[in-house]
Amino acid sequence: MQVGFIGSGNMAWALARGWGDPVLATDSGSGRAAALAAELGGEAVASIRELADRADLVVNAHKPPQLAEVAAEVGDAARVVVSILARTPLAEVAAAYTSAAVFRIEPNTPVELRRGVLAALEAGGVRAALARALDDVVEA
Ligand SMILES: NC(=O)c1ccc[n+]([C@@H]2O[C@H](COP(=O)([O-])OP(=O)(O)OC[C@H]3O[C@@H](n4cnc5c(N)ncnc54)[C@H](OP(=O)(O)O)[C@@H]3O)[C@@H](O)[C@H]2O)c1
After folding, report:
1. pLDDT value at position 139?
2. Candidates 11, 59, 90: which one to mutate for ligand 1, based on the most atoms within 8 Å of Cβ?
3. Of 29-43, 59-73, 126-140, where does mean pLDDT reach its minimum?
4. CA dihedral 27, 3, 22, 87 (to 10 degrees)
5. For a substitution probing ligand 1, which of 24, 49, 63 has the most ligand atoms within 8 Å of its CB?
6. What global pTM score does this model have?
7. Is 42 in the pocket of ligand 1 (CB under 6 A)?
8. Is 44 helix (H, G, I), strand (E, B) or coil?
């Protein structure tokens, strides 16, 4: 499964290192996406839209105030969105991504060592949407 990170800061690094597989990543110009991709054998992509097009699962690893701006750029390209935005209700994220299966997780940095704790929530009806998305992945 191809995972893509929108934002390549502290928590994206922790999650991606814990995940351990190559990832797609973006940043807002710092170069941290390229560094992350270099470490994990993945790729820094030029735009959020391209990342959403290519990833099976998109992780929102930017800051909470950027939700609307980032969601507008993703548009309907994402099939599965996992939000790690702190203090941002799942309903708010689901309202921004109406065509995706949306999850919210609250991770902590020990996920980098696969010793973290994750609180997870799913939006209503998300299991059916996820099953459809995974069908697409399996067929691809
Ligand atoms: N740190 C934690 O322990 C923790 C725990 C739970 C949840 N969270 C949540 O995790 C998220 C990230 O936190 P963090 O500590 O990792 O923040 P961070 O280190 O500041 O990283 C934020 C990343 O978002 C990127 N970014 C900003 N605007 C963007 C845009 N328009 N398009 C693409 N990328 C953009 C930044 O790009 P640049 O690299 O170019 O600046 C940076 O890579 C936050 O929503 C936070 O609430 C954090």
Report:
1. 45
2. 11
3. 126-140
4. 50
5. 63
6. 0.92
7. no
8. strand
Residue nearest to atom 32 of ligand 1 (CA): 28
Answer yes or no: are the C-beta atoms of 82 and 97 closer than 8 Å: no
Asked if residue 14 is part of any domain, the answer here is yes
Confidence check: pLDDT of 56 > 60 = yes
- Domain assignment present for 139: no
Overall number of domains in the chain: 1
- Helix extents (H) in 41-125: 48-54, 67-74, 90-96
Range of the domain at 116: 3-134
Domain of 58, CATH number, reads 3.40.50.720
Residue 74 lies in a domain: yes
Q: pLDDT tens digit string along 63-111?
A: 999 999 999 999 999 999 999 999 999 999 999 999 999 999 999 999 9
Domain assignment of residue 92, yes or no: yes
Q: Looking at this protein, which amino acid is placed at residue 32?
A: R
Ligand 1 geometric centre to CA of 127 (Å): 27
50 residue type, one letter = E
Residue 116 predicted with pLDDT over 70: yes
Q: Report how far ligand 1's centroid is from the alpha carbon of 60 (Å).
A: 8
